[in-house]
What does this fold into?
Amino acid sequence: MAIAYTVPNGEQWLFSFQVKFYAPEPTLLQEDITRYQLALQVRQDIYTGKLPCSWVTQALLGSFMVQAELGDYDEREHGGSTDYLKEFEFVPSPTPQLLQKIAELHKTHVGMKPNQADIKYLETAKRLELYGVDLHPVRDTENVEIYLGVGFHGIVIYRDRLRIGRFAWPKVLRISYKKNNFYLKIRPDNCGYNK
It folds into this structure.
C-alpha cells in the first residue's frame, strides 16, 4: 500500500529513513546506494552527538563528506574561503578552525569520486568506538547509572564515559528480563563484570 493512502488528507507527515543495523565492514557493501544511505546515517549520528569523535576525525570525515557531495575543490567556484561549507551539517556549531581544516583536507582529495569518498568516510567512521552501538541508560545492581550499548559486535557497558565491560555475542549465554530488571548471563572468564 502506498504511503499516500495511509496518511489522511490535508495532513503532512515527515518520514525519514534510518539505519537500524550497522554493517561491521561497510566498505564491503555491494551497492553504492546502500553505502550512501549508511554514510548519511553516520553523518546524522555524528551531527547529533550519538557517535562522538575527536576534532581531527570530525575534520577528516567532513572533508570526505564535502568531496562526496561537491566533488573536487575548485578555487574559482569555492572562492578561497570556507563559506561554501556553511550549508553542511558537520557538527551543531562548527568553529572557524574546524571549517578551515575541512577545507584544507578537501583540497587533498582531488580526483576522488563520490562513491570513493563515501567508502573513505565509512572506513574512518567504523573505527570509532561507538560506531553501530545503540546506548541505553540503565542502573546496575548497586543503583549506579551506567550505559548499556548493543551493537553488531556484542554488548558494551560504560560508566562515566569509560568502557567497563565488553561482551562479544558468543560470550552472551542468555538475555532475559523480569519487570524492570534486565539480566545478562555471560560465559565466565576473568572479565570481572558478569552481571
